[in-house]
Q: What sequence folds into this?
């Protein structure tokens, strides 16, 4: 087990280096001189002297690889630079906006699990019946629905017409319902069908026949044997979705004025606040990678076969 | 009727149903394409003509679906929006394929160091959540339609190239490719005459299954104000424009969302039906 984790952790290093390299290059794709861009955003006239002085200050006069190493060194000390707009440290701003996004993502995860898993399970057991047909339609609708439209529909029906939930902002638990449901909706269909498919596959396995031969009740076979094995791909999928949900959160947070990282990111893009853009991408990608790592490790706890293979 | 007959009948019904879905979805797609191609012919008004005196009007004979907050004809904007949504999505997919197919085949066919380097590049690019990376690229390059296309292609080609590489790896080991190799057929000819025709149907299915997602991403980016710039009409942007007004004028956000939804679901159904149909052929 320990060996598996060590192996997986070492495979993380090149990926993280790759991420840092791409994020670093990203900033050098800016059309024109970053120093001029900085001055323009700060409303300082970009005279030759000012640009030259800033180039020295930002280290832009050094060769590219030294700039990268300098930058990487700073990043490792959690110094992601300073926002062009608010003049605060990027790291502090990110931390400030991190919690609302985590809250939103966790609430969505709960929605996904609570809604999609029971329906997925039932539609596998009653294959071809009403529930199964219904879940097929829901799955199509959920992957085809633009999340921003779904969010507006929820606001219009549940907040404006029926006055059940507050519309915008963050505060009470009721504020959390609509945004997290909006974020979750696109994934509900996917996981419903994923669990159904994986259960249908496992229902034909020899171990089910063996359990039947032992005279176990159908309900016991499904809940104890089939479901347990069928949840594995769902868990992997959810871990990967967690990272994509950060991307989805960008749109959802914009609709509901949710003060999270997604909003920080969009605002920084619209303001051309380059260090902030860079910091957000780096931070969210690292979260994404770490999520995948945790899922892998969890997976090896749940499925001993992977553990053994890792030790071979 | 015995059990067997019932089962056969059900099977036929299922096939017909999937054909029906295919018919409906392909008709919707065709209709949208015609709408996009002949937008000036179908649109009753100029989609970008601003007339503040006519703002937020209900349906009338001049404006069949009413007007938006600047007095522009909603129906005309919806029709012209088809051009941008479909056109951009096809362009993004086309450009992606122009990168992914050659690179995927090259990496899969050559193997060795080329393949190793290719896979590491894929791992790194796929370590980013893809929507965020497109956002960041647009943020750095500036907001415009061409940058949106560039950013999306740059982010998503990896996924397809990797899948295509996998397809090539499995085809490469098959006997007819080995036979061609033994005959001394040049590599390029093997790729063009043997490998490409074998994988191309799978690639087409892949494209049609994913194009709905591409349309969603494009309208999502435009919704955030990062894609198509005003005054051009785009459905996602129209929904964003409706934000301050939709409480009293829900139709402003209802119609464009409906358009996106219908187009995307049509492409998704079509993709699925296509995959099923091709699977049947294999059997």
A:
């Amino acid at each position: 087990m320990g060996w598996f984790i060590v192996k997986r952790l070492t495979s993380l290093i090149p990926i993280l280096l790759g991420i840092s390299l791409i994020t670093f290059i990203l900033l050098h794709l800016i059309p024109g001189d970053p120093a001029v861009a900085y001055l323009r955003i700060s409303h300082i006239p970009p005279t030759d002297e000012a640009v030259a002085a800033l180039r020295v200050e930002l280290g832009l006069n050094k060769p590219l690889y030294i700039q990268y190493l300098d930058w990487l060194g700073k990043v490792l000390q959690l110094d992601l630079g300073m926002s062009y707009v608010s003049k605060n440290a990027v790291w502090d701003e990110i931390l400030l906006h991190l919690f609302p996004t985590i809250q939103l993502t966790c609430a969505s995860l709960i929605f996904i699990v609570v809604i999609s898993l029971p329906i997925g399970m039932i539609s596998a057991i009653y294959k071809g019946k009403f529930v199964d047909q219904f879940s097929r339609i829901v799955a199509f609708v959920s992957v085809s629905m633009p999340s921003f439209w779904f969010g507006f529909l929820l606001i219009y029906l549940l907040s404006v017409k029926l006055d059940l939930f507050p519309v915008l902002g963050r505060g009470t638990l009721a504020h959390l319902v609509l945004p997290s449901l909006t974020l979750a909706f696109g994934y509900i269909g996917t996981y419903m069908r994923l669990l159904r498919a994986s259960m249908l596959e496992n229902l034909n396995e020899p171990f089910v026949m063996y359990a039947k031969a032992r005279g176990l009740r159908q309900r016991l076979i499904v809940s104890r044997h089939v479901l347990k094995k069928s949840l594995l791909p769902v868990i992997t999928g959810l871990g990967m979705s967690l990272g994509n949900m950060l991307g989805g959160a960008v749109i959802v947070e914009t609709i509901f004025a949710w003060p999270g990282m997604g909003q920080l990111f969009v605002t920084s893009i619209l303001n051309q606040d380059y260090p902030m853009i860079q910091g957000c991408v780096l931070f969210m990608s690292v979260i994404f990678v770490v999520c995948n790592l945790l899922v892998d490790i969890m997976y090896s706890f749940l499925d001993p076969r992977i553990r053994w293979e890792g030790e071979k | 009727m015995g059990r067997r007959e019932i089962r056969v009948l059900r099977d036929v019904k299922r096939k017909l149903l999937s054909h029906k879905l295919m018919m409906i979805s392909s008709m919707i797609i065709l209709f949208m394409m015609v709408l996009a191609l002949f937008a000036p012919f179908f649109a009753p008004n100029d989609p970008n003509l601003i007339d503040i005196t006519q703002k937020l009007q209900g349906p009338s004979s001049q404006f069949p679906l009413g007007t938006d907050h600047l007095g522009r004809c909603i129906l005309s904007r919806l029709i012209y929006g088809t051009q941008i949504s479909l056109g951009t999505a096809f362009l993004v997919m086309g450009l992606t394929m122009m990168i992914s197919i050659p690179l995927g085949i090259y990496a899969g066919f050559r193997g060795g160091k080329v393949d190793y380097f290719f896979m590491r590049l894929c791992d790194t690019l796929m370590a980013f959540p893809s929507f965020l990376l497109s956002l960041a690229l647009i943020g750095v390059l500036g907001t415009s339609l061409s940058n949106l296309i560039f950013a999306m292609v740059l982010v998503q080609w990896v996924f397809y190239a990797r899948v295509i590489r996998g397809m090539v790896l499995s085809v490469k080991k098959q006997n007819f490719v080995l036979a061609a190799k033994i005959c001394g057929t040049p590599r390029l000819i093997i790729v063009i005459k043997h490998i490409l025709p074998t994988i191309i149907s799978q690639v087409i299915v892949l494209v049609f299954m994913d194009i709905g997602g591409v349309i969603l991403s494009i309208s999502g980016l435009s919704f955030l104000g990062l894609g198509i710039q005003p005054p051009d009409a785009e459905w996602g942007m129209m929904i964003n424009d409706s934000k301050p007004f939709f409480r009293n004028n829900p139709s402003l956000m209802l119609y464009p969302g409906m358009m996106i939804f219908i187009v995307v679901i049509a492409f998704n159904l079509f993709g699925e039906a296509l995959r099923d149909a091709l699977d049947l052929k294999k059997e």
Remarks:
- The two ends of chain A are 11 Å apart (CA to CA).
- Chain A touches chain B through 47 residues (CB under 8 Å).
- Chain A has two domains: 32-79, 91-302.
